[in-house]
Amino acid sequence: xxxxxQPTSMDCAEGRAANLxxxxxxxxxxxxxxxxxxxxxxxxxxxxxxxxxxxxxxxxSLIITEDRKSSTLILPHATLRDTAVYYCIVxxxxxxxALNFGKGTSLLVTP
Amino acid sequence: xxxxxxxPSWVICKSGTSVKIECRSLDxxxxxxxxxxxxxKQSLMLMATSNEGSKATYEQxxxxxxxxxxxxxxxxxxxxxxxxxxxxxxxxxxxxxxxxGSNEQFFGPGTRLTVL
Lengths: 111, 116
Hints:
- The complex is a heterodimer.
- Chain A has strands at about 10-15, 20-25, 30-40, 45-50, 55, 60-65, 70-75, 85-90, 105-110.
- The N and C termini of chain A lie far apart (about 35 Å).
- Chain A has a 5-stranded mixed beta sheet, with no helix packed on it. In chain A, strands 2-7-6-5 form a 4-stranded antiparallel beta sheet, with no helix packed on it.
- Chain A is globular and about 40 Å long.
- By secondary structure, chain A is mainly β.
- Chain A contains no helices and 9 strands.
- Helix content of chain B is about 0%, strand content about 50%.
- Chain B has no helices and 11 strands.
- Chain B has strands at about 5, 10-15, 20-25, 30-40, 45-50, 55-60, 65-75, 75-80, 90-95, 105, 110-115.
- In chain B, strands 2, 4, 5, 6, 9, 10 and 11 form a 7-stranded mixed beta sheet that branches.
- Chain B is globular, with a radius of gyration of 13 Å.
- The relative contact order of chain B is 0.34.
- Classes of the chains: A mainly beta, B mainly beta.
- The interface of A and B includes residues 38, 44, 87, 96 and 97 of A.
């Protein structure tokens, strides 16, 4: 799996959009960008994934640059419950292998 | 979405005892289950990959005789920490895949192990 780079931590005011960046400059053509998050003392939770088109679901939006070397996860209206560590993972879907969690970004949503 | 449960959610044991952690897929058959370990303020680290009916594959540095994994059915995998020591205190998380083609992983809520 290609390596990813994320900022260690970010703050966001409640109600504002949280934009979490991820660099994956060595991504290959058949690798997807996945985002998971882990709230303190819980198991990871799947958020969204994409290949090259922007994706949106009920939790978040994923914006992938045209060259696919970076992406941004957007939480449109952050709440206090969105405080968590967010992991950007690049992998070949259907690979059946374990997820390689990096250090992620610790997002703190403040009142 | 698919649900994975773990039991117990937390356990405290004395040094030298063994602890068993269960991971169950509640509404799907899991051909593959993964066991991760997470120390405080660190990321998840893969310990082993477990396929139903076969021996688990352990990551480098993980002692297979200390961390016994059994995946006897398509809905249950167990991790037994044998002769636990305080350095084994950690957050243990399992995940499961259906193996039906998507291979998406669904995570359990984790088990907090504290060894006194």
